[in-house]
Amino acid sequence: MRQSLAVLALALLPLAAAQAPRSIEFTRIVDLSHVISTDIPLWPGDPPVELEPVAEFETDGYYLRRFSIGEHSATHMNAPNSFHEGGVGIDAYAPESLVVPAVVIDVRAQAAADPDHAVSLDDIAAWEAEHGPVPAGSVVIAYTGWQAKWTDPAAFFNEDVDGGMHFPGFAGETTAFLLSERGIAGVGIDTHGVDPGQDEEYATNTQVLAGNGIVLENLTNLDQLPATGTTIVIGILRLYEGSGTPVSVLAFVP
Predict the structure, then answer these.
(1) pTM of the model
(2) Which of these, 75, 80, 119, lies nearest to 222 by C-alpha position?
């Protein structure tokens, strides 16, 4: 059964003001976030996830835990100040900027053939030949198939003998095109980085966040999304001057 949810209009940039009201038509909701536990894959050098009970039913009459997690762990969103000194923190994103349309680019075949695959202009051209131009104001999500490796951190990061990581992401020139020619709101991916593991310049992160855009990493359940028509709602922890935050991302699927 199709349902409707009235929401504020989508801004082209995450810090822009809201526009006219609109509605989301959806038939189901998909959770794009991984469950947070102490054994999730963590970027080398990031702090461990800690879940410590501080109150128990037996002694306190209720249950409560303290948790600790890095700002860029689990399914998360990066903030401009993580790549640009003086950039805004995650707390600066307006609520209406976190409700955005999403398109999904399926590059599983390319990533299976080459774990260092960078989403290319050819990939975008092939997608647009089938679905039309990438809509302005949308988040472009790369479905690489890496979500299936989440429970195996070694496979997820795919490090070589020298510690270099091998996982797919977006090519910098592709991101530049999507920002300048398609006016996208941001990018997302099911790996630990929108930049390929071998990209030490972080070309996609730096470009998107220079415009206060959206960067989502470690997404999951992308196999349940259509190529077009989905609206995502990003629930952030509004951490003061946070460099990022774990997020709950819900997809409203038409």
Answers:
(1) 0.92
(2) 75
